[in-house]
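Retro notes (design track)

What went well: tokenization of the new backbones is finally stable.
What didn't: we kept losing track of which sequence belonged to which structure.
Fix going forward: every design gets posted as structure first, then sequence, in one message. First example under the new rule, 293 residues:
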């Protein structure tokens, strides 16, 4: 993750060097060399994603020009605030590392998982979650990603149960995700309580451009409210469809996905049909962007 980018752009390499110094560990080595089971551990994956996204931002921010609005999916919301200057790179990185540790611990204490449901409407998913609750199980919508694609989160027996129940309800596919815990669910309550204390110890300022909250699907500029919503985000659903819609209402005419992968770019085929979207996460993608200017 990010190795070629750091080799090509000095700004990206400096971001990884600063991250290693800030955390007192070779995060760059884990991101670039693995092994995969170490990188994908929540306490390592979250800071690695944060650094990669902000390394890309450092490389492309002058090329992007004025930013009308930003948003990030789950952990990406903290990356968006890092790019907007809501907190310093180092403070954000320390908070993200702690966030990953707290979420991993919550997952050990209250084991759970997540599953993507494809082809079901919101009403059907609400019914499934109500049925699970009636049976004494915790199951909630966690990621409202795109029309017909919702990720649910809950305890292990609920995820096992919904595989069959959702298909009987008419789901086209049910994909159990390879995750270590039930993120964005009540099972993350202990992590949220501790993360509140983490964020209270970090100076926040108003972002340089609006950042749309996962929790409210609305832009937030007040530093204290940003703190509160970043805490609530751990147990609340990511309202991604509405986040993209709100950004379009705010005047966004094209989107750039900063970081590894192209998941959000793919979701925009349904969430922002016809709106230009580019994924910028590799040296090749950035060089291609430059050649088209």
């Amino acid at each position: 993750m990010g190795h070629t980018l750091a080799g090509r752009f000095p700004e990206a390499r400096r971001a990884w060097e600063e991250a290693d110094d800030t955390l007192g560990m070779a995060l760059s080595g884990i991101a670039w060399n693995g092994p995969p089971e170490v990188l994908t551990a929540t306490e390592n994956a979250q800071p690695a994603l944060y650094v990669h996204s902000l390394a890309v931002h450092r490389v492309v921010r002058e090329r992007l020009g004025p930013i009308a609005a930003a948003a990030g999916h789950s952990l990406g919301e903290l990356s968006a605030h890092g790019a907007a200057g809501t907190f310093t790179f180092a403070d954000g990185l320390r908070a993200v590392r702690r966030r990953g540790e707290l979420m991993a611990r919550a997952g050990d204490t209250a084991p759970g998982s997540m599953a993507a449901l494809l082809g079901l409407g919101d009403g059907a998913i609400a019914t499934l979650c109500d049925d699970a609750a009636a049976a004494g199980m915790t199951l909630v919508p966690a990621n409202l990603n795109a029309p017909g694609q919702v990720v649910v989160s809950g305890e292990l027996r609920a995820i096992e149960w919904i595989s069959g129940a959702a298909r009987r309800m008419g789901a086209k596919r049910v994909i159990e995700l390879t995750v270590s815990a039930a993120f964005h669910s009540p099972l993350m309550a202990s992590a949220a309580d501790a993360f509140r204390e983490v964020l209270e110890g970090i100076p926040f300022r108003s972002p340089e451009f609006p950042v749309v909250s996962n929790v409210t699907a609305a832009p937030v500029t007040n530093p204290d409210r940003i703190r509160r919503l970043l805490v609530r985000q751990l147990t609340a659903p990511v309202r991604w469809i509405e986040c993209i819609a709100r950004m379009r209402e705010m005047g966004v005419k094209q989107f750039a996905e900063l970081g590894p992968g192209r998941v959000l770019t793919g979701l925009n085929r349904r969430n922002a049909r016809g709106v230009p979207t580019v994924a910028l996460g590799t040296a090749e993608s950035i060089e291609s962007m430059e050649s088209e200017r």
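Added context from the reviewer: The chain has a mean pLDDT of 96.
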